[in-house]
Amino acid sequence: MQIAILAHEKFPGRAKTALGVLRYADYDVEAVLDRDSAGDRVADHVPDVQDAPIVAGMDEVGDVDALLIGIAPIGGGFDESWRDDVRTALERGCDVIAGLHYFLEEDEEFAALAAENDCELWDVRKPHEELTVSQGAAGDVDAEVVLTVGTDCSVGKMTVSMELARDAREAGYDAAVIPTGQTGIMIEGWGNPIDRVVSDFTAGAVEEMILEKGDEHDYLFVEGQGSIVHPAYSAVTCGILHGSMADQLVLCHEAGKEAIHGYESFSLPSIPSYVDRYEDLAEPVSDATVTAGALNTSGLEDDDAARDAVGEYADAIDAPAADPIRFGTDDLLEALLE
Amino acid sequence: MQIAILAHEKFPGRAKTALGVLRYADYDVEAVLDRDSAGDRVADHVPDVQDAPIVAGMDEVGDVDALLIGIAPIGGGFDESWRDDVRTALERGCDVIAGLHYFLEEDEEFAALAAENDCELWDVRKPHEELTVSQGAAGDVDAEVVLTVGTDCSVGKMTVSMELARDAREAGYDAAVIPTGQTGIMIEGWGNPIDRVVSDFTAGAVEEMILEKGDEHDYLFVEGQGSIVHPAYSAVTCGILHGSMADQLVLCHEAGKEAIHGYESFSLPSIPSYVDRYEDLAEPVSDATVTAGALNTSGLEDDDAARDAVGEYADAIDAPAADPIRFGTDDLLEALLE
Predict the structure, then answer these.
(1) Which residues form the D-glutamate N-acetyltransferase-like N-terminal domain (chains A, B) (predicted)?
(2) What pLDDT is stored for residue A189 in this prediction?
(3) Can you say whether the dihedral through the CA atoms of A304, A309, A315, A320 is positive or negative?
């Protein structure tokens, strides 16, 4: 499938979804839309993902099957400056894939255009109707369940889950990803958008996916969300922790981060305390232990400094650690897989 | 306002909402509907709430303004055996108040009858449209925020919040309740149904209420939900803990309870560990401490045994404790109010 990715004014630094799709999804990306860096190429900014031209708008994109909204502003609203591009896509018969809280299919203009041009609006963040409360049964599946947890939002949990599952498969293990957020769902082509389900069903929506896949694979890598210390998003984190009944946790962190992103008055507690917090919170529901750590060192230019930071982080969590993007996943997989 | 309360086959033991409304709300209850105990009176079963006749159906009820659904089955569905009563109420021009996950206003027959007879369907569990993520700002309000937390669901958190707020007001303090569940909302006449909001907005929906009332009162008693160790509902509990940015916690428990209700393979951890769990989880967001405990001793017939159980419970949590229904709230208010 050929797609264009909308990432206006945010590519690549604040375009987590766009980057995830470029890196992991099975799409041919024909163009990235970003009016601020039109004329550049993806490779000018990010070397290790598939390359594509960056253009100012949908009218500069050739033939594609879908336009994918690759950015997610805080609050998840639709930015009206994107309307022309979505309209153009629909008029040309392209599907539109979005992970916003604002549902495109409830937008009258888009719904009408989609019907007129026989194309699909896929709001990946719209939960299906049959979700319900957890039965506390995820622990019964055969698979080993490995959940990424974090010190904050946007520290790399989705990326780490994808890297671990891909490399485990390449090493001959039967591993799958359990996607819980818009990017993971776009990459995998299925999944429950946990941050959008009814709060009572948070754990249940994770459990449903574990039960669906848990006897088909030997390892499930569950994409975590938020952080257990986050003033706004901890409920989602807690629901995933208990709903997945994880066996192992991979604690994800970004080197140098000291405060909650967007909530700077809230300092991060010490790294070792996170290990206790996650294990203590999990314990009445599952015997989850932090068996590995992933450190995002993209903010450190020097490889030696990054290596030092990873070493310090491993000491702090008392478990093997790595930056999977910079140094690969070998050490982590050795710790996680039997 | 005059109401009837529907509680078929569940009054009083499994009719938490009906009992809460009978005990705390400012309604005149004309009748309780329970086909299993029709002919009895409320006072035959529950001595310390307003009395009313128990009848088999709505056609035996005199003139009322509203029918209130006073039971909430697991899952929150609508039981079709209630349809005749709701239909009769609407045909007589009564409003219908419900706290189910199933919304009456989305039921075609009820919506049509309500329109025809000019009466209102109030689905208290339907969240309003403007909810969003927490700003992490609840700690900025003037009021002291007191949250009830629990060892499990249905151990008395709503009751304890109502008792404390009522008795604090009677003692001359300016205290209000922040309702978070269907019964609390029905009693108070406003509030966000936290278990039904989008999971990303769990903390935000609590914060919204704290910010609305926090500078108008000296004490806010926040109705807690679920339990932080609950395999299905912990997400909601966590969101309320962080969203309220509570100053003080009242740990609620039911004497003799050893396992999670409905999830009997999950044992409750030790009582002292709950104190640590709640305080540790709160700590990165607010300095909440467990300053009092409430023990539901309704399962103990003997007052001395109940008194012993309360004493043991106070020792276990290392804070003053009481059964507010059996022994009053004096000891708790002394610990909680300055």
Answers:
(1) 36-127
(2) 83
(3) negative
**Amino acid type, A270:** S
Q: Rounded distance, CA A262 to CA A259, Å?
A: 9
Closest CA to B42 of B11, B66, B82, B78: B11
pLDDT over 90 at B145, yes or no: yes
C-alpha–C-alpha distance, residues A278 and A287, integer Å: 11
Q: What is the mean pLDDT of residues A45-57?
A: 95
* Residue pLDDT, tens place only, A312-332: 999 999 999 999 999 999 999
Across the interface, do A198 and B200 touch by the CB < 8 Å criterion? no
Enumerate residues 212 to 231 of chain B having a beta carbon within 8 A of any beta carbon in chain A. 228-231
Q: Does B101 touch chain A (CB under 8 A)?
A: yes
Chain A residues close to B260, C-beta within 8 Å: 136
Question: What residue spans of A82-156 are helical by DSSP H?
Answer: 83-91, 108-116
The C-alpha R_g of chain B, in whole angstroms, comes to 20
Angle between helices B271-282 and B234-244 (to 10 degrees): 50
CB–CB contact B238 A234 (8 Å): yes
Q: How many whole angstroms separate alpha carbon B241 and alpha carbon B224?
A: 8
Looking at residue B244, what is its pLDDT? Answer: 98
Which string of b and e fits A29-48 if b means at least 16 CB within 10 Å? Answer: bbbbbbeebbeeebeebbee
- Domains contained in chain A, CATH given: 2-123 (3.40.50.720), 138-336 (3.40.50.300)
Q: What is the DSSP string of B151-171?
A: SSTTSSHHHHHHHHHHHHHHT
pLDDT in tens, A75-127: 778 999 999 999 999 999 999 999 988 899 999 999 999 999 999 999 999 99
Q: Is B211 at the interface with chain A, CB within 8 A?
A: no
Interface test mutation site (partner B, options A200, A260, A264, max chain B beta carbons within 10 A): A200
